[in-house]
Amino acid sequence: MAACNKSVLVTVTVAISMIMICCCHVSEGAANDLISKVCSEAKSPSVCESVLRPVPPSKGADLPGLASTALEHGIDIVEQSLAAITLIRGDCTDFYTDAIDSLYYGRENLGSRDWDNLYNNAVDALESIANCDDILTGEPGDVEPPAIAQADLTAEDAVYVVIAVAKYGRITKFI
User: Fold this and answer.
1) Alpha-carbon distance 22 to 39, whole Å?
2) What three-state secondary structure class fits 83?
3) Neighbouring C-beta atoms of residue 82, cutoff 10 Å
4) How far is Cα of residue 34 from the mean position of the Cα atoms in its chain?
5) How far apart (Å, rounded) are the C-alpha atoms in residues 166 and 48?
6) Which of 7, 21, 26, 119 has a Cα at 20 to 30 A from 146?
7) How many Å apart are CA 70 and CA 115, to the nearest integer?
């Protein structure tokens, strides 16, 4: 009788383990599928995927988790770009500070699942970064310094990931 109970216990344990393994793979697949859907909306899907794929599925399997990752990455990159640009020229600091502020407001939008305002704040951040380009190349013959052009591009790419996630939230009405 004890051997029979032991056999049943082993069988049940193996079955539960197999179910858990399958669920983990399905969850990871669902996270990767969501990342693919979100990044298909991005200006640069490869940049989007490079930001979102490293997120462990347990943290990023849902849209708010991906949005949080994109926002934090965006804030970090725009702050780094601001620091780099300030060393070269101070003309853009106000625009980059505005961009960072817009992304910080995005945190509040994310907390309330307000995808429309998250999207709008990310677009505002992108426009602030673009304003830097405008003042540096406003006159014929003006050339944006290569280091600033690269910092702008890097910051814009990071913000476009936030825009892609917010856009997907708006489309799907994810709550």
Assistant:
1) 25
2) helix
3) 21
4) 12
5) 13
6) 119
7) 13
- Spatial CB neighbours of 157, under 8 Å, sequence gap ≥ 6: 43, 44, 47, 77
Apex 137 CA angle, 135 and 140, nearest 5: 125
From first to last of the 175 residues of the chain, give the pLDDT tens digit: 555 444 433 333 333 333 333 333 334 454 568 999 999 989 999 999 999 988 665 355 689 989 999 999 999 999 999 999 888 888 889 999 999 999 999 999 998 999 999 999 999 999 999 998 888 888 888 888 888 889 999 999 999 999 999 999 999 876 5
Number of residues assigned to the chain: 175
The Cα angle at residue 34 between residues 60 and 123, in degrees rounded to 5: 80
DSSP codes, 127-165? HHHHHHHHHHS-STT----HHHHHHHHHHHHHHHHHHHH
User: What does DSSP assign to residue 172?
Assistant: H
Please answer whether residues 174 and 63 qualify as being in contact, where contact means their C-beta atoms are separated by less than 8 angstroms: yes
